[in-house]
Design brief:
It is found in: Membrane. Its cofactor is FMN. Pathway: Pyrimidine metabolism; UMP biosynthesis via de novo pathway; orotate from (S)-dihydroorotate (quinone route): step 1/1. InterPro entries: Aldolase_TIM (IPR013785), DHO_dehydrogenase (IPR050074), Dihydroorotate_DH_2 (IPR005719), Dihydroorotate_DH_cat (IPR005720), Dihydroorotate_DH_CS (IPR001295). By secondary structure, the chain is an alpha/beta fold. It has a single domain, classed as TIM Barrel (Alpha-Beta Barrel). β5 and β6 form a beta hairpin. α5 runs parallel beside α6, α6 runs parallel beside α7 and α7 packs parallel to α8. The protein is globular, with a radius of gyration of 19 Å.
Length: 382
């Protein structure tokens, strides 16, 4: 239905407009009788359930940051069977983002390029929405109360907010949003800022984590803090000194998890015409071309942390096989965004069903058993 009717209609419009309309529809649909969405998309299997950071995750599949930045359609995402939603990136101040056009489809690669520039309604508005959602009772496909909602934080997109002010900006968002989040993700790797700077250098990351962990203690919260990193761009990796330094800093603060990975700035492995790519210009690449790059980072993190710190794998998940590859590489949870644009909401159920089939094929009882079982992890080169 999506591929035959809705996608051709949506693809007549530019990527951002199509997304805005889809989100409006999702916002309305979430208030229909939950049994309608459940009949279409519901699929629950206890073998996909796991407990992480003290919470139950009904299945490993979640919505990646960027798809519902302001958390307007949380009931819809959960209604179509996603196990969790990551809202954001949200910044302390509302922000309109970069000039349009800023999102582009590459249909030949089933990929996207975006330079949205952290457009969002700001921490206060999103916090109000999350507060309301937490008060809702919701009968999803497992009949549980509201599902896990992660909140992804970024610095307000304004190059004049730098250094200590930048950290204070992150902390202001944390103060508003962390009490309503199942986890907080720090987006330290956004490739689309006007200043071109990220928070990934060891010194900047160290200072940011110092402030965030101090605030978490002051607020007496036990919310897990996750760090979202850039993908590994090289074909093969033995040792990556910049990444090692980041992991060392994150581990020294006792970070509770990693998200691997953000979009990639490069254009490797694409079949799309170079003239089209040049016309699009800069922006982060997502979708299938990101899969191998994010897998390398997941493996690296899993090995570096000896499998002790949960990882959320994201980038090019578009099938049960790609999701399972990330899980075997070391991810406990996976997320997707671009594949929903190309395949529609029915994909969620088919990935979950496919994952159960893959558990059988590989002889695992539960999804948790499959985490980090990729034989590549035993090798010297990832
Ligand atoms: C249009 C668009 C906007 C995005 N915005 C954000 C964002 O605000 N914060 C963030 O951490 N990641 C953002 N992402 C990155 C996604 O969360 C994800 O890391 C990336 O798209 C790879 O997953 P995918 O291949 O399933 O799309 C965005 C991605 C896209 C396509």
């Amino acid at each position: 239905m999506y591929r035959r009717f809705l996608r051709p209609l949506l693809f007549r419009f530019d990527a951002e407009r199509a997304h805005t309309w889809s989100l409006r529809a999702a916002r309305l649909l979430q208030y229909t009788d939950s049994s309608v969405l459940n009949r279409l998309y519901g699929y629950h299997n206890a073998r996909l359930e796991q407990t992480l950071w003290g919470h139950t995750w009904p299945n490993p599949l979640g919505l990646a940051a960027g798809a519902d930045k302001n958390g307007v359609a949380l009931r819809y995402w959960h209604g179509i069977g996603l196990g969790h939603v990551e809202v954001g990136s949200v910044s302390a101040q509302p922000c309109s983002g970069n000039e349009r056009p800023r999102a582009f489809r590459l249909p030949d690669d089933e990929a996207l390029i975006n330079r949205m520039g952290l457009n969002n309604e700001g921490a206060k508005v999103v916090a109000q929405r999350l507060r309301k959602y937490a008060g809702d009772t919701y009968e999803g496909d497992s009949g549980t109360p509201p599902r896990p909602v992660g909140v992804n934080l970024a610095k307000t997109h304004d190059p004049s907010i730098m250094g200590a002010e930048g950290r204070a900006d992150f902390c202001a968002s944390f103060r508003e949003l962390a009490p309503h989040a199942t986890y907080v993700a720090l987006n330290v790797s956004c490739p689309n800022t006007r200043s071109g700077k990220t928070f990934e250098s060891p010194e900047t990351l160290d200072a940011l984590l110092t402030d965030i962990f101090a605030l978490r203690r002051e607020m007496a919260l036990d919310v897990p803090i996750l760090v979202k990193l850039s993908p590994i761009l090289t074909e093969r990796v033995i040792f990556d000194s910049a990444l090692e330094a980041r992991i060392e800093v994150a581990e020294s603060h006792g970070v509770h998890g990693y998200i691997a990975a953000n979009t990639a700035p490069d254009r490797h492995g694409l079949t799309t015409d170079t003239s089209r790519l040049q016309a699009i210009g800069r922006g982060g690449l997502s979708g299938p071309p990101l899969h191998a790059r994010s897998i390398r980072l997941i493996r690296y993190l899993h090995r570096a942390t000896e499998g002790q710190v949960p990882i959320i794998g994201v980038g090019g998940v578009d099938s049960a096989e790609t999701a399972f590859a990330k899980i075997q590489a070391g991810a406990s949870l996976v997320q997707l965004y671009t594949a929903l644009v190309y395949h529609g909401p029915g994909l969620i159920k088919s990935i979950k069903q496919g994952l159960v089939g893959l558990l059988d094929t590989h002889g695992f009882d539960t999804i948790q058993e499959a985490v980090g079982t990729d034989p590549v992890l035993e090798r010297f080169v990832l």
